[in-house]
# Entry
Amino acid sequence: MMDWTDRHCRYFLRLLSPTARLYTEMVTAAAIVHGDHNHLLRYNDAEHPIALQLGGSDVAWMTAAARVAANYGYDEININVGCPSDRVQSGQFGACLMGSPDIVTACYTAMRAEVDLPITIKTRIGIDEHDSYDFLRSFVEPLVAVGCQTFIVHARIAILDGLSPKENRSVPPLNYERVYQLKRDYPDLTIVLNGGVQTLAQVDAVLAEVDGVMIGRQAYQNPYFLAELEQHLHPDWPLPERRAVVEQMLPYIVSEIAAGERLSHITRHMSGLFAEQSGARAWRRTLSENAYRDGAGIDVVIAALNAMPMAA
Ligand SMILES: Cc1cc2nc3c(=O)[nH]c(=O)nc-3n(C[C@H](O)[C@H](O)[C@H](O)COP(=O)(O)O)c2cc1C
# Structure
């Protein structure tokens, strides 16, 4: 998720879920072809399994970007066919590519010939007036024909003209049934449902129908949910205390600050950790009022912990 799942966020989420597959923010193939690879792509080894999400539609650039990603050791490359922003549409990629399956298929085929990594597609269930199962199927079919195995489907259409990206994550209604139908028609594919999943009961219901669930906003805004989910799926895994997770972050924060990073760039992803716990406000406020200051270090994080009652 853009501006959210950067490398610091992912390192933090990994502590809460040893097995979840983590996805980068969307990185454009153009940025990789023209830009600073290390700045765009570096990550901590602890983040595995990690997927790089690529945005683009130029076959040569997508293929070159896939090569770079493979060299960086990513576990999966995911092609973005879901983002509705104007900037992305003017670059002719993201959700508008649902209307051009030939382009996505050409990118997929060339990338797959270039690298030995799983290449997956993240898509919507439709775009604009193309709000039907047949349309979704007509997008998926040519990709399946060239060997694409895994589709992550955000279970609402994207409205490409008239809704902001934020509205496009809430206004078009969710339609899980369309994703379930895809799995019924293509039982050999790996189908992952995304959109609106917030509870363990919802996860169970989705996993009864498809192969996986992708969780976006709930994982960011209430990251402890990921730990509860990890334990729900792997009951032997001991659920860590929230405070212990913060303590596990401290050595990472120390080394990142020593390398020149600002504390706030790391702690901004941690502010939801105590969501709905007593003291959550004191935690968030201590971080937000102090972490951005020049020279701020782990003393701010420790002060934020101490600002909460011990039970939290
Ligand atoms: C701040 C933000 C940034 C996002 N950036 C991306 C992105 O870069 N690539 C992508 O495929 N989806 C992106 N999304 C959409 C989410 O991946 C997800 O499809 C959507 O939020 C629905 O899932 P959820 O209800 O679990 O959040 C973003 C969502 C948010 C809130």
Remarks:
- The longest strand covers residues 22-28.
- The beta strands are 22-28, 50-55, 76-81, 119-124, 150-154, 190-194, 212-214.
- Residues 7-233 form a domain with the TIM Barrel fold (CATH 3.20.20.70).
